[in-house]
């Protein structure tokens, strides 16, 4: 970053640069704050994506939120907006945990659409970085991306980093994290305890309300208290579901496709049934094959 040695050294270019830096660093309203990260984005954004990013940024005292938009509405973009904003604010201890098959996709999305540097870490790259005299591959000015299973194996190393944000993609895979038998979930809960988290999932609830409890416990163990209390209040025939919805609104935001039809055109698909009568040869072939 350039420095000012005298009044005469402040060129118009430097003046513009310093104004830009001060704008990015100043305390701002949530809307203004997010706008700082949009300058670097190379993607067409939809209103619900900006709303989701603001929701994730709006409460600095919370331990995290869950974005649960329906499939295809851009949860990755929403999370990248949040990561980009934190990066612009020099809060760069950022981690993305996702299924192994999505690691390269995450790195490419962050690089191509948001100009954010990222590294994919696994056992091989970790070993190589150590051989290259990088003592702690997590302590670098870059967003780290790793699989769920590798993150669970690196419990001690992850626990040593004061993460500014941990994004967990496909978080429903950890819906049983509250169970002692779930080794991956238990490991991540220990290593990331107290760190701010952003969970992404299109299916926060599949079979049981206890899945919501498991996911919420990843964010904060104290949101609903212990498992027994949650079952008594909500997971029974007399459960107060209205009260549960009110509490969920504070840390879960979900957008459905029907909510965005005004600005996201979806192709109308209609199933057509056509009668088919096989010929004698086709019928004989069918019998032989089956």
Automatic annotation (TrEMBL):
Domain Helicase ATP-binding: 56-222
InterPro entries xrefs: DEXDc_RapA, Helicase_ATP-bd, P-loop_NTPase, SNF2-like_sf, SNF2_N
Superkingdom of origin organism: Bacteria
Keyword annotations of the record: ATP-binding, Helicase, Hydrolase, Nucleotide-binding
Key word ATP-binding present: yes
GO MF term (any one): ATP binding
Pfam families xref list: SNF2-rel_dom
Protein's recorded name: SNF2 family N-terminal domain-containing protein
Organism this protein belongs to: Pseudomonas reinekei
């Amino acid at each position: 970053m350039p420095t000012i040695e005298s009044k005469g050294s402040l060129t118009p270019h430097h003046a513009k640069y310093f104004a830009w830096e001060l704008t990015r660093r100043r305390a701002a309203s949530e809307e203004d704050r997010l706008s700082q990260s949009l300058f670097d984005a190379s993607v067409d954004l939809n209103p619900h994506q900006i709303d989701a990013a603001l929701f994730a940024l709006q409460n600095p005292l919370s331990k995290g939120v869950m974005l649960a938009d329906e499939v295809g509405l851009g949860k990755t973009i929403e999370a990248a907006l949040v990561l980009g904003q934190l990066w612009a604010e020099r809060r760069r201890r950022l981690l993305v945990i996702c299924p192994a098959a999505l690691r390269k996709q995450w790195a490419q999305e962050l690089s191509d659409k948001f100009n954010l540097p990222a590294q994919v870490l696994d056992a091989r790259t970790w070993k190589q970085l150590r051989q290259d005299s990088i003592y702690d591959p997590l302590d670098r000015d870059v967003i780290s991306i790793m699989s769920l299973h590798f993150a669970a194996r690196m419990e001690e190393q992850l626990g040593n980093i004061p993460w500014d944000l941990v994004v967990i993609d496909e978080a429903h895979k950890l819906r049983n994290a509250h169970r002692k038998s779930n080794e991956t979930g238990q490991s991540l809960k220990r290593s990331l305890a107290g760190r701010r988290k952003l969970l992404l999932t299109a299916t926060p609830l599949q079979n049981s309300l206890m899945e919501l409890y498991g996911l919420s416990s990843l964010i904060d163990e104290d949101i609903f208290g212990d498992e027994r209390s949650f079952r008594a209040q909500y997971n029974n025939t007399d459960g107060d579901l209205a009260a549960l919805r009110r509490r969920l609104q504070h840390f879960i935001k979900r957008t459905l496709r029907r909510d965005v039809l005004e600005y996201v055109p979806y192709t109308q698909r209609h199933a057509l049934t056509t009668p088919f009568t096989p010929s004698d040869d086709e019928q004989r072939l069918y019998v032989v094959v089956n």
